[in-house]
Design a protein that fits this description.
Blueprint lengths: L2 E4 L9 E7 L6 E2 L4 E6 L3 E7 L3 E6 L5 E5 L3 E6 L5 H6 L13 E8 L15 E3 L5 E3 L2 H10 L17 H10 L14 H8 L6 H5 L14 H16 L2 E9 L1 H12 L3 E2 L2 E2 L5 H15 L5 E3 L4 E3 L5 E3 L1 E3 L2 E3 L2 E2 L7 H16 L13 E5 L18 E15 L2 E15 L5 H16 L7
Parallel strand pairs: 17-21, 21-22
Antiparallel strand pairs: 1-8, 2-4, 2-7, 3-6, 4-5, 5-9, 6-8, 10-11, 12-23, 13-14, 15-16, 17-20, 18-19, 22-23
Helix pairs in contact: 2-3, 8-9, 8-10
Length: 446
């Protein structure tokens, strides 16, 4: 029986991807573990391996095709001993039932993850039924229901908290679910709710009319930029941001950093590590979350997720966007370990070589713009995180000590918190713990 090869879901949030390259052609024999294609998502480029053995009977989706939906048929494999021409002629038909998981993707080359590419914890917007009641559903489920003409209020959801997901819509379509009511029959009161569920900006034409023709060029959005836009809108629309700022004196930290770097053993004529201020910020935030565990949380509708470790994501700028590689269990790691790990993660992030597990998840984030001379700023929270720390430049400022003016190196940091789970007082407590480690950095060594 022919084996249908479908577009794999290479990350929890993937709904579609680009089929960048086929590494096999029709007529080639493949065995389990052979790399057969490269798939690009908004986050990564994956080498896809075959699970089954056989002959490539037909390539259904050509290399370079964009926007291929997850689970869409991309190729057909003829099993050993099966007629290749017969398998190819049946490509796309309903007769050959796809075998379980025809491909897998163990090898990853990360492209980018804007605003940290991780599964969003925020609840999906709701659709509105013909009776005005809200039906919670995923964006993909709503789109599929619209295309199939299915009324979501008639679909039983099997997702988290009864949310309607893709498989529910597909099952409803197969079983002949109630069609969606015509727009004219829907109560007028539902219109504002529908508009709120799917806000739209100005059309391209409306924007372009504002500029003189020939005075611009159009650069199409790539997957990374689209995901940045989507997740930023999602964060600002669903997460109630609250901001707390504090000034930290850096002189003791800078002195300790210099002392540690001077003492670094040499390996192949190069120091074994070179600790940066950002490495010490990562460690200080991780220890602060350890000391204030109520702030090391994520929000869900029914429960607070309290994390046992501080997994700190660090924003790394790459061409076209940014990605947030994660230092796992940062509270348990030495400064030299964090330094070397960040150097490796940062390099591979810029080379687009990160694996999904190296940038997905995390419990908090650090965004440091101090090296760009930025004094202070407020960062956008990265769901499902409840906090993100925005770090400004260390600069010499006049301060008052013991009633007298003095000069100190001062850094302003701003903590953005999800006010649903980290209140103002708790955010301030976390920042005070962070400030304590920054201004008394020996505490990070013991």
């Amino acid at each position: 029986m022919p084996i249908n090869i479908t577009m794999p879901a290479l990350s929890p949030t993937m709904e579609e991807g680009n089929l960048a390259k086929w590494l096999v052609k029709e007529g080639d024999k493949v065995k389990s573990g052979d790399v057969i294609a490269e798939i690009e998502t908004d986050k990564a480029t994956m080498e896809v391996e075959a699970v089954d053995e056989g002959t490539v009977a037909k390539i259904v989706v050509a290399a370079g095709t964009e926007g291929v939906k997850v689970n869409a048929l991309i190729a057909v494999l003829a099993a050993d001993g099966e007629d290749v021409a017969a398998a190819a002629s049946g490509a796309g038909s309903a007769a050959p039932a796809p075998k379980a998981a025809a491909v897998e993707a163990p090898k990853a080359e990360a492209a980018s993850a804007p605003v940290q590419a991780a599964p969003a914890a925020a609840p999906a917007p709701a659709a509105v039924s013909s009776g005005g009641a809200r039906t919670f559903s995923s964006p993909l489920a709503r789109r599929l229901a619209k295309e199939a003409g299915i009324d979501l209020s008639a679909v039983a959801g099997t997702g988290p908290h009864g949310r309607v997901v893709k498989s529910d819509v597909e099952a409803a379509a197969a079983g002949g679910a109630k069609p969606a009511p015509a727009a004219a029959s829907a109560p007028q009161a539902a219109a504002p709710a529908l508009a709120a569920a799917a806000p739209k900006g100005a059309s391209d034409d409306a924007v372009l009319k504002l500029f003189e023709q020939g005075s611009y060029e159009l650069v199409p959005h790539d997957g990374m930029r689209k995901t940045i836009a989507r997740r930023l809108v999602e964060s600002k629309q669903t997460v109630p941001h609250f901001y707390v700022s504090v000034d930290c004196e850096l002189d003791a930290l800078m002195a300790l950093r210099a002392q540690l770097n001077d003492a670094a053993p040499r390996k192949d004529s190069a120091p074994a590590y070179k600790i940066s201020v950002n490495d010490m910020v990562i460690k200080a935030l991780a220890l602060a979350l350890r000391d204030v565990p109520d702030a090391n949380v994520s929000w869900t509708e029914n429960a607070m997720v309290k994390h046992k470790h501080a997994d700190v994501g660090v924003a790394v700028s790459i061409p076209g966007g940014l990605i947030t590689p994660i230092v796992r269990k940062a509270e348990e790691k030495t400064l030299s370990t964090i330094s070397n790990e960040m150097r490796d993660l940062g390099k591979r992030a810029k080379d687009r070589k990160l694996k999904p597990e190296e940038y997905q998840g995390g419990t908090t984030s650090v965004s440091n713009m101090g090296m760009m001379g930025v004094k202070n700023f407020a960062a956008v929270i990265n769901p499902p995180h409840a906090t993100i720390l925005a770090v400004g430049a260390g600069e010499q400022r006049v301060i008052v000590k013991n009633g007298e003016m003095a000069i100190a190196t001062v850094m302003t940091v701003t903590l953005s918190t999800d006010h649903r789970c980290v209140d103002g007082a708790l955010g301030a407590e976390l920042l005070q713990a962070f400030k304590g480690y920054i201004e008394n950095p020996m505490g990070m060594l013991v």
